[in-house]
Amino acid sequence: MEFVGDRVLGLLIAEWLAERFPHEQEGDLGRRLAVLVSQPVLADVAERIGLGEALSVAPGEAKAGVRRRATVLADALEAALGALFLDGGLELARGFVRRAWDDVMVRQTEPPKDAKTKLQEWVQARDLGLPHYVVVSRAGPPHAPEFVVNVAVGNFAGSGKAGSKRAAEQIAARELLRVLGA
């Protein structure tokens, strides 16, 4: 169900974005879509509609707080949306998505920018040069690598660790933006 729900959500959010922002470029629409179908947004929506409380989990898991975990909430919401679609069709799923995601959609007035883009624009606006990214290390097996990346601008630096070089760069850029107060 989760697989189907993920695809239905992507389709319905893409359709809605095309309606709301008909003159926006594909790249901007894609960034909006990525945020709207991201785990944090799904977990927030699931929490707001009370989905966690409806989950049937073992008593030990309930005590451990599994119903509040973002991964569990996001996956459960996708599964519920998949079931809603298969049982009631696209119109029913569309109505649910538009009600449940309305707050998030309305708040998204400008296309989101990733941390690397924000950092580059911030430093260029201040004539500080370009950020310099360096892969400090790569560890772990091929199926589960861990990258550590540093980014520097002048005397300021940030570091990030993640399962891909790109994700580690994003984390490092976010850290440097925090250090710079941007």
Could you name the key traits of this structure?
62% helix; Double Stranded RNA Binding Domain; three-stranded antiparallel sheet; 2 domains; Ribonuclease iii, N-terminal Endonuclease Domain, Chain A; alpha+beta; 182 residues; 10 helices
What's the gist of this structure?
The chain is an alpha+beta fold and 182 residues long. It has helices at residues 2-20, 26-36, 39-48, 51-54, 59-63, 70-88, 90-100, 102-107, 115-125, 165-180, and strands spanning 132-139, 146-153, 156-162. The longest helix has 19 residues, at 2-20.
Model description:
The protein is of the alpha+beta class. The protein has 2 domains: 2-107, Ribonuclease iii, N-terminal Endonuclease Domain, Chain A (Orthogonal Bundle); 115-180, Double Stranded RNA Binding Domain, CATH 3.30.160. It is 62% helix and 13% strand. It has helices spanning 2-20, 26-36, 39-48, 51-54, 59-63, 70-88, 90-100, 102-107, 115-125, 165-180; strands spanning 132-139, 146-153, 156-162. It has a 3-stranded antiparallel sheet with strand order 1-2-3.
Q: How many angstroms does the end-to-end distance come to? A: 41 Å
CATH level 1 name of the largest domain: Mainly Alpha
Strand order of the largest sheet: 1-2-3
Query: What count of structural domains?
Result: 2
Please outline the major beta sheet.
Answer: 3 strands, antiparallel
The secondary-structure element order is: HHHHHHHHHEEEH
Q: Kindly identify the CATH topology of the largest domain.
A: Ribonuclease iii, N-terminal Endonuclease Domain, Chain A
Global geometry: globular
| Rg measurement, Å | 19 Å
Low-confidence stretches: none
- Helices, by number, come to 10
CATH H level of the largest domain: which superfamily? Answer: Ribonuclease III domain
Estimated structural class: alpha+beta
| Strand residue percentage | 5-15%
Tell me, rounded to a whole number, the average pLDDT: 92
How many DSSP-defined strands?
3
